[in-house]
Write a structure and sequence with these properties.
The protein is globular. The mean pLDDT is about 95. The chain is mainly β. The strands form two sheets. Strands 2, 4, 5, 6, 9, 10 and 11 form a seven-stranded mixed β-sheet that branches. Strands 1-3-8-7 form a four-stranded antiparallel β-sheet, with no helix packed on it. The relative contact order is 0.32.
């Protein structure tokens, strides 16, 4: 299983970016997919999760609620993170992740996930 995250870059505060996570070896629609991020000197934190098709739903960290949107294109086997109204504190390395197991709720802990992309850097200047 390989996850490749891309789309990061440098943007001014208030701007937007769209991150993509392309997968091989798994059909993403059958799995919960999440984005996490890690800022310099900080622990990795949950950003957003989208559940597998059929169960539906997504959940966001409070810090990004209303600004970020996670979505999935099943035909492209790709998950996206649309990030609007970016803030300086959104600066981090962003990772996508895939969970093998299925649960009734939303998985928001990094240990819930089995496969990780390599990370893509988002830098927001104030």
């Amino acid at each position: 299983v390989q996850l490749q995250a891309f789309g990061g870059g440098s943007v001014q505060a208030g701007g937007f970016l769209r991150l993509s996570c392309a997968a091989s070896g798994r059909t993403l629609s059958r799995h919960s997919m999440a984005w996490f991020r890690q800022a310099p000197g900080k622990e990795r934190e949950f950003v957003a999760v989208i559940r597998r098709s059929g169960t539906g739903g997504s959940r966001y960290a409070d810090s990004v609620q209303g600004r970020f949107t996670i979505s999935r294109d099943n035909a492209k086997n790709t998950v996206y993170l649309q990030m609007n109204s970016l803030k300086f504190e959104d600066t981090a390395l962003y990772y996508c992740a895939l969970a093998e197991r299925h649960v009734a709720g939303f998985m928001v802990r990094s240990y819930d996930y089995d496969y990780w992309g390599q990370g893509t850097l988002v830098t927001v200047s104030s």
